[in-house]
Design brief:
about 425 residues, mainly alpha, Growth Hormone, Chain: A
């Protein structure tokens, strides 16, 4: 019997769009803060550090809620969790568009953080339930490319919406995307487990189940996971990657406009190209990681490339070269995110995947404070971004060291198990 491909046709698309529109909601603010009318309406003109706290407020609640959703998703399942989260963030985007003060807008961002905190636990749980380890790299790519495609296409869409109906219109449009597209996808396409899905035939179910039996940590408990130093190295990698992700993504449009004096149109083009390059990097890294089975080594190299790119960006007088280097820096962040999520699912189990991802998502709190801290560094430097970018370089070096500790004996057991699984499948 030929295997059905329900895991790719019914699970991968919803989690892809989950991140596409989730990232539009989360990171669209990086473009909206360049809008003079928005800053004027909320009393934020010249308040760089206060602007940075818009992302901090979101991510503090996002980080703590990640832990809670991690336990919830393991209890009620990823499908129900995704539906609840999508409804929350859809309506908070409407609240954001209705906001007339900084305080009310901050409240909307905080509640949005609670809703969007379902992203990591839901996607890692679905992938752990639906895919064999040999497909983890490509499966993780299915949502991580949405993570980067969302801002790539979202930034021009948001700018267009603002030009037609003001900054408020962009929030109403983003709410519609979540409630009209994301919600039905999870309602009608997904199920928590392949055994429950109407489109999974016996051959695909056997393929998934046999592949998951080879997983070296299939019976690991949450307590055992927390005692595994490898998990905490991945946690550290995720922490510094969050610093880099939010530091670059939030301030990149402002950096290009204020420090490199790009026009709004040119800023939009370079920012979108950064997200597209990150998307390509994610796809490439996922493929290479599945083929080589050496994700920690790959991630180490990517971190080093990102650090070098950021150093060049701060030292060059050529604005176009600086933009290219910042794009490469964001692409490196995407590649490392792919690696960290692949390792997370590989080291956890089906029973602990939600909680493990939730605890990992807590690292976003540090990323949130990064936006405010970088805003402070820029403010005290008189609008100069050099110190803030060097701060990001320091974090990339820490991440490279953390991943390098996992390189010795890189996943030999997982490689042997994958080869045995392939041999059994052929037999």
């Amino acid at each position: 019997m030929k295997r059905s491909r329900a895991r790719w046709l019914y699970i991968a698309p919803p989690i892809f769009f989950f991140w596409v529109f989730g990232q539009m909601d989360k990171l669209g603010i990086s473009v909206i803060i360049t809008n003079h009318k928005f800053l004027q309406d909320l009393g934020l003109l010249g308040e760089t550090a206060k602007i940075g706290f818009l992302m901090t407020g979101f991510l503090v609640f996002y980080g703590f809620a990640n832990i809670a959703w991690g336990f919830i998703v393991d209890r009620i399942g990823p499908r129900k969790t995704a539906i609840i989260g999508t409804i929350i963030w859809g309506f908070t985007m409407i609240l954001g568009g209705l906001s007339s003060s900084y305080g009310l807008f901050m409240v909307s961002r905080m509640i949005l953080g609670i809703g969007e905190a379902v992203l990591f636990p839901v996607c890692n749980k679905l992938i752990s339930n639906w895919f064999p380890p040999k497909e983890f790299g490509r499966a993780q790519s299915s949502w991580i490319i949405g993570d980067y495609l969302g801002p790539a296409i979202g930034i021009p869409i948001i700018i267009f919406a603002i030009s037609l109906g003001g900054w408020e219109a962009s929030f109403y449009l983003l709410a519609a995307f979540s409630l009209i597209i994301n919600l039905p996808l999870f309602l009608f396409l997904t199920r928590d487990d392949p055994k429950q899905h109407y489109a999974v035939n016996a051959a695909e179910l056997q393929y998934i189940q046999e592949g998951q039996k080879t997983k070296q940590s299939s019976n690991i408990t949450f307590g055992e996971l927390l005692r595994n130093y490898r998990y905490w190295m991945i946690w550290l990698v995720m922490l510094v990657d969050s610093v880099l992700f939010y530091g670059i993504s939030f301030w990149l449009p402002t950096y290009l406009e204020k420090a490199r004096h790009f026009s709004a149109a040119l800023m939009s083009s370079w920012t979108s190209s950064a997200w597209l390059l990150a998307l390509i990097t994610v796809l490439l890294v996922g493929y290479i990681a599945d083929k080589t089975r050496k994700p920690s080594l790959i991630g180490t190299v990517i971190f080093v490339i990102g650090a070098i790119a950021l150093i060049i960006a701060t030292s060059t007088g050529n604005s176009s070269l600086a933009a290219v280097m910042m794009d490469i820096g964001l692409a490196a962040v995407g590649g490392v995110l792919e690696i960290s999520q692949l390792l997370l699912v590989d080291y956890s189990s089906k029973e602990t995947a939600g909680k493990a991802a939730g605890l990992m998502g807590f690292t976003n709190i540090v990323g949130g404070f990064t936006t405010a801290f970088m805003g402070y560094l820029v403010e005290v430097s008189g609008g100069n971004f050099t110190t803030a970018i060097i701060f990001l370089v320091f974090n990339a070096v820490i991440g490279a060291i953390a991943l390098f500790t996992l390189v010795p004996g890189e996943r030999k057991d997982a490689l042997n198990q994958s080869e045995n699984f392939e041999a059994n499948s052929e037999a």
